Amino acid sequence: MAIEVDVMKRIPVREQEPKVRATNFEEVCLGYNLEEAQAEASRCLNCKNARCVTGCPVNIDIPGFIKQVEEGNLEEAYDVISNYSALPAVCGRVCPQESQCECKCVRGIKGEAVSIGKLERFVADWARENGVTPKADAEKKGKKVAVIGSGPAGLTCAGDLAKKGYDVTIFEALHEAGGVLSYGIPEFRLPKSTVVAAEVENVKKLGVKIETNVVIGKATTVDELLEEEGFDAVFIGSGAGLPKFMGIPGENANGVFSANEYLTRSNLMKAFDDSYATPIAGGKKVAVVGGGNVAMDAARTALRLGAEVHVVYRRSEEELPARVEEVHHAKEEGIIFDLLRNPKEILVDDNGHVSGMKVVKMELGEPDASGRRRPIEVEGSEYVLDVDTVIMSLGTSPNPLISSTTDGLDINKWGCIVAKEENGETTKNGVYAGGDAVTGAATVILAMGAGKSAAQGIDEYLSK
Amino acid sequence: MYKIVKKRALANNIVLMDIEAPRVAKHCYPGQFVIVKMDEKGERIPLTVCDYNREQGTVTIVFQTVGASTTEMAQYEEGQCFRDFVGPLGCKSELIDEDPEELKKKKILFVAGGVGTAPVYPQVKWMKQQGYDVDCIIGARNKDLIILEDEMRQVAKNTYVCTDDGSYGFKGNVNDQIKDLINNQSKSYDLVIAIGPVIMMKFVCLLTKELDIPTIVSMNPIMVDGTGMCGACRLTVGDEVKFACVDGPEFDGHLVDFDQAMKRQQMYKSEEGRAMLKLQEGDTHKNGGCGCSGN
Question: Which of A284, A316, A458, B200 has fewest C-beta within 10 Å?
Answer without folding.
Answer: A284
